[in-house]
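Following up on my earlier thread - several people asked me to post the actual chain instead of describing it. Fair enough. Here it is, all 66 residues.
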Amino acid sequence: MPDAECKHTPKCPTADSPDREAAQVVAAHPEQGWSLLCNALVLFEDTGELLPDGQIIAPHRPLATV
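Reply from S.P.:
Thanks for posting it. Predicted structure:
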């Protein structure tokens, strides 16, 4: 989904931005464990990501602090 498709104000962060997960959800499939964000990022419930260029970001859950 090109950046021009984002009609939100402020604009959603791009898929290569550090805050890419802040983009708005355009299709949610919680029963399958994933959501498509406005910046074409596929976000999985285990915190893994699939970028529009096919790059995989491994799950990155925060570590528990004691």
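Residues 60 and 66 are 18 Å apart (CA to CA). That should answer part of your original question.
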